[in-house]
Amino acid sequence: MTPKTSLLEPDARTRRRNAAERRFRAYGLAAIIVSVLALFVLLASILANGTGAFRQTFLHLPVTLDAAVLDKAGNRNPDEMKKVTTVGYAKLINKALVAALAEKGIATDGLTDKQLAGLISQEAPATLRDQVLADPAMLDQTLTVDLLANGRVDGYFKGRVTLESAALDSNTSPEQLQLADKMRAAGLLSVDFNPGFLTRPDASDLRPEAAGLGVAILGSAYMMIIVLLLALPIGVGASVYLEEFAPKNRLTDLIEVNISNLAAVPSIVYGILGLAIFINAFGLTQSAPIVGGLVLTLMTLPRIIIPARAALKSVPPSIRDAALGVGASKMQSIFHHVLPLAAPGILTGAIIGLAQALGETAPLLLIGMVAFVKDYPSAPPEGFFDAASALPVQVYNFTTRGDPAFVERASGAIIVLLVFLIVMNAIAIFLRSRFERRW
Amino acid sequence: MTPGYTLLAVLGRSALGFVLGRQRALSVAGGDARRLHSLPVYYGSSVLLFTAIPALILLAAIAFLHPWLGAAATGPVPAVLVLLAALVGLAIATLRITRDQRARNIVEQAVKALLIGCSLIAVLTTVGIVASLLFESIHFFRLYPASEFFLSLTWNPQFRGGSELGIWPLLWGTLYVSVVALVVAVPVGLMAAVYLSEYASRRTRAFAKPAIEMLAGIPTIVYGLFALITVGPLLRDYVAQPLGLGTSSSSVMTAGLVMGVMLIPFVSSLSDDIMNAVPQAMRDGSFGLGATPSETVRQVVLPAALPGIVGAILLAASRAIGETMIVVMGAGAAARLNLNPFEAMTTITVKIVSQLTGDTEFASPETLVAFALGLTLFCFTLVLNVVALIIVRKYREQYE
Predict the structure, then answer these.
(1) Chain B partners of A361 at a C-beta cutoff of 8 Å?
(2) What CA–CA distance (Å, rounded) separates A231 from A160?
(3) Using 50, 70 and 90 to split pLDDT, how confident is the model at A109?
(4) Which B residues 109-148 touch A at CB under 8 Å?
(5) Phi, psi for residue B30 in degrees, rounded to 5
(6) Interface with A, mutate which of B111, B191, B289, B361 (most A CBs under 10 A)
(7) Is B11 on the interface with A (CB under 8 A)?
(8) Deepest of A114, A257, B224, B291, by most Cβ within 10 A of its Cβ?
(9) Residues 54-113 of B with CB under 8 A from A
(10) Exposed, middle or buried: residue B11 (CB in 10 Å: 0-12, 13-18, 19+)?
(11) A31 in contact with B at a CB cutoff of 8 Å?
């Protein structure tokens, strides 16, 4: 009897099974590729949109700071000089622009003075005024000042505004943009690194070029300080109790169920809690970092407790037994021996929890952090009660504005946020690989 | 004296108490710490506790009762009372020190009480959440009939009154977006987990696993911006408009797709854990019978891991329902009951944000409805989480 099949030649059924195997494997690979690709596209899109925010168009004009206009009393007293509003500075700047154009021999093609002034940001006079008030010695000198260009001019050099779109735009005109081109060729205007994006406060709808993240970064930093000061000790205390002391009873079960549920409660619910309790019941001010910090603390607690308990659990019982054996009390064995050994794991979990808190947006929207804040909060601890913004909320805030220039700002703010997150996670990974012990 | 300075003064006296207590213990023992029951540090700490705790409780009580005390609270009287309490505590505790006093036990009891207090904050948070949601929701249902809220099919808030606040359009939007997200996340996440745990070489694993986990670490605002400026316009220009399905860049599809990407690492890491818990012996048995790896996964590993995977999917669903920023920026604000996934729809979380931000009067049903929505959301996610946790826990026990 001859065999119907050969070992050397797979039959139809084996071929089918092998094909199915290859297909299944390909699906798996496809899933991996899709996920990695999604990550790549996400980051690439943010980077492509956001890098522009770190560069900004500046005009470089020799401005004569006429003391007769800016300091009428003539005694260089900043308090008296404050009487001159930004309008006075704007006139000086406009005069300087006209003079600089004439000196370089650039024809203005019949543009009115008002249209010429439209090249400069409305924020520029205020910036100059602040500089002069801070340093009255600048008066009566002719200094080359870097002034922010108008958002449309900036957009033109970044490719966001074209001559065609400018023709339809009431805020700018093709002639103004062509003049800007000539000024760039003459060295009166250039696109440079923009440190103001990191330090300036937010700016109004009409001045996207002046909008920065200063207040938001400060607000986020304040909230992170509050979260660290509250959530880390409370979280460690709770995990030490639950892991080392808690008897098995109803209360302990209740606490455990609570913690695992709190970790999964949607973040927006914490915002409602903050609004109802911290603002309406306790009467804390809206958009203050203290409220945001408290809300984020409550949200971060379970995310610190869970890894902290795992870290405590991973310390072998022999350590505790040895400490008890030489006469330490239970409390001493834990605080002198177990906790230091678990510290790297606890800190790693805490930093990751903190990073999550830094990127959290939804609860902060409800407690009023979305409000427009132009003043820097003062130094802590009073600053904790001043109005401030937060980095992720500032991103959201930028996206609700009409001017497309704010999209660039939003993506730029995301880049800043991601840099902070990467640094925090890198510290966590470093701690884990350097100090964590495997028993 | 402001409360801040009073607090500082109390802390200063506590530090003084520590030093005094330690000195006193040593002098009682004649300078030889071995003759004491506890280390000198514990005597100092116990005095510190007796100085600080009564004074701080008094200070907190005054701060809490501030509105009712009126003028009396602002004068010098409260500060003097608090500092007096601190001094009395200090004196009593210092005088009580003897050689046989169990100072360490006192301090350890206090530390333990503090630790219990820390753990109770979790319970207090839950109580706070439930209380704030319930009270304001009851307030809302006094102003607006509950039957309308749960049964009406229109959502049309009018700040002049006469609003229709039916939850169904919002619930529909929420579920629609979540379903789209899960349709993306579950197959991709599951297959990624299968590939990583059963097929991938070490090098692929070392690269792909952190990359997928990185997706989980990205804040949701980043996904929201991605939906708003990239995915939304792309879907509108290349899918919705050519097919004649809509002209809006914010849509159920936009939010759902982006949220699906966000949930991939969530599904994959949970199901990876669960599949790793399936005993190797079951795989080996299947291979021994001649099954291919894919047959083993499909017919042995996945069925064995099924309950756990269902739990993981439920957890992912609860995430999707409670997600806020992606839908705020990607799904739109129009409340409608519609089947077209390329239309803008809205969700419960979007409306909570829009009803509670901006200048709103806190007593109107249009604002208070946010609390009723929050309560609904909380209940939904709570049920999903509890069921999922029970399933996952049961499943883990099965193989341990």
Answers:
(1) 219-221, 224, 324-325
(2) 44
(3) confident
(4) 111-112, 114-123, 125-126, 128-129, 132-133, 135-136
(5) 70, 35
(6) B191
(7) no
(8) B224
(9) 104, 108, 111-112
(10) middle
(11) yes
Interface touch B208/A35, C-beta < 8 Å:
yes
Q: Check if the beta carbon of residue A361 is closer than 8 Å to that of residue A203.
A: no
Residues of B in contact with A238 (CB under 8 A): 115, 118-119, 121-122
- pLDDT tens digits for range B41-100: 899 999 999 999 888 888 888 877 776 666 665 667 778 888 888 889 889 888 888 888
Q: State residue A40's pLDDT score.
A: 94
Say whether pLDDT at A74 is over 80.
no
Tell me whether A223 touches chain B (CB under 8 Å). Answer: no
Report pLDDT digits (tens) over A17-65: 999 999 999 999 999 999 999 999 999 999 998 888 898 889 888 888 8
pLDDT tens profile B201-219: 889 888 888 888 888 889 9
Rounded-to-integer distance, Cα A362 and Cα A241, Å: 31
- Chain B residue numbers touching A298 (CB-CB < 8 A): 121, 125
Compute the distance between CA of residue B162 and CA of residue B171 in angstroms, rounded to an integer: 21
- At A223-262, the pLDDT tens digits run 999 999 999 999 999 999 999 998 888 888 888 888 888 8
Report how far residue A290's alpha carbon sits from residue A278's, in angstroms, rounded to the nearest whole number: 9
Q: What CA–CA distance (Å, rounded) separates B81 from B57? A: 12
Distance CA B318, CA B380 (A): 8
Instruction: Fill in the amino acid letter for A150.
Output: N
**pLDDT band per the 50, 70, 90 thresholds, residue B295:** very high
Amino acid sitting at position A133: L
Exposed/middle/buried for residue A142 (C-beta within 10 Å: 0-12, 13-18, 19+): exposed
B357 contacts A362 by C-beta, under 8 angstroms: no
User: Residue B304 — left, alpha, or beta (φ > 0 → left; ψ -120 to 50 → alpha)?
Assistant: alpha
Contact B218 A237 (CB under 8 A): no
Name residue A97's beta-bridge partners.
none
Task: Give the SS3 label for residue B400.
Answer: coil
| Residues found in chain A | 439
What is the rounded average pLDDT of the residues B121-132? 91
The tokens for B124 are: 């207090």
Burial (Cβ within 10 Å: 0-12, 13-18, ≥19) of residue A438: exposed
The burial of A196, by beta-carbon neighbours within 10 Å (0-12 exposed, 13-18 middle, 19 or more buried), is given as buried
CB A398 within 8 A of CB A392: no
Residues of chain B neighbouring A245 (CB-CB closer than 8 A) = 112, 115
Pairing of strands B155-156, B164-165: antiparallel
CB A289 within 8 A of CB A219: yes
- Does A14 reach chain B within 8 Å, measured CB to CB? no
